[in-house]
Amino acid sequence: xxxxxxxxxxxxxxxxxxxxxxxxxxxxxxxxxxxxxxxxxxxxxxxx
Length: 48
Description:
- The chain has one domain (1-48).
- It is 96% helix and 0% strand.
- The chain contains one helix and no strands.
- The protein has one helix at residues 2-47.
- It is rod-shaped.
């Protein structure tokens, strides 16, 4: 029982770490792409 509980804990930690990593990556991508999207929208509106 003790061994299986350790495995479950390791899996939970791995899932939590991967979820946090995905969140950080998504946040970074959003933060980096925001000015580009805003500039593109402004240019598009100005062109029309």
